[in-house]
Amino acid sequence: MVVLPIASGKGGVGKSLVAVNIGLALGEAGKKVVLVDLDLGASNLHMFMGIRSIKTGIGHFLNNKDMNFEDIILDTEFEGVRFIPGDAEIPGIANLKGTQKRNLIKHLLSLDADYLIIDLGAGTSNNVLDFFLISGRGIVVTTPTLTAVLNAYLFLKNAVFRIMSSCFKSDSPAAQLIEKLKKEGSPLQKVYIPKLLEKIKNIDEESHSLFMNRIETFHPCLVLNLLSDQKDAEKATQVRRSVSQYLNLDLEHLGIIYKDALQNIALNSRIPIVKYKPGSVISQAIYRIADKLLDFTSESKGPLDLQSLEESYQIAELEAEADYQSRIYYLEELLHCGGELSKGELIEIIKSQQYEVDKLKKESNLLKAKLVKAINQGFIS
Ligand SMILES: Nc1ncnc2c1ncn2[C@@H]1O[C@H](COP(=O)(O)OP(=O)(O)OP(=O)(O)O)[C@@H](O)[C@H]1O
Ligand SMILES: [Mg+2]
Description:
This protein is of the alpha/beta class. The chain is 53% helix and 11% strand.
């Protein structure tokens, strides 16, 4: 089984959209897929699948000793795809105990599937990191914004530290060094990992080699979502460079996805985008990612092949260029095709523009309210 946890540092970058739609695409390719909503405390994966409400999920399983794990696995209307819902609004479920986490991981890893896709919550809590690290091939989703890019990098940095703490025995010199750094108040975020590893190698060769063996099987991948412009694609190289230089990690590029107003219409219509408009640029981008995932094997061993790593970035840049052209071409087609638009196309354009207008209105109202508040409080005269 190929296990694909999907994470991000920052929230709202498209993890759930990617999880559901690559799951459906892999199902269409004849694979057995299980989609799991592990964004405990904020589960919403069902909405991306068009399921209105959920009655039982992981939260119930964890809170109810008499419940079988199989009872929470749902069949879906989508070919080859089963679904495990999250919490169904059980308060406090986001803070899993160690035993609950291990129990859950054991059940997940014994599922009968070709692909296990795990939608995670945003951030770098230990729960999120531990679920991400059950596989060597987790996917980090980011957008091209500065904060999202930084958070993607910080997520991976936290993952590396989590791997260290799982490799080092608590009384080892390496673990003591990390503890000392924490005590000295030097935030681990500021520690330069290659230098730290060198130090660890000098004082504790055993811990160092345990870590090196473990990190060799850690090959996370990147999806760059919500692009507006072709130039946005360059942000992937920036993430790759920082991750390689500061974390000693290779990050494979799985692909880019442009921002597309169709997604919002699909979500409101409760239809996953690859089913709503399979031929659209956004759906094709998702199918492309799923195609690459078809080459994944269940275990990741040894270092990545550097040439294919390099190529993954070149391919993604070409895809960004091609999709950009397709989007322009699509609009031109709509405007010029026989001089007329069909009723359906016209409705779609108006709907998506209406959505953008509504969003701008909301932002403008929010700004106005803030301005009025600032004036009332005397901050602005
Ligand atoms: N490429 C895209 N084009 C248009 N809209 C998108 C795209 N990707 C995501 N969205 C929209 O952005 C919003 C956030 O996406 P999503 O919920 O998948 O993010 P997330 O990372 O799972 O968020 P959270 O951290 O809250 O779980 C959703 O409304 C989704 O429909
Ligand atoms: Mg989500």
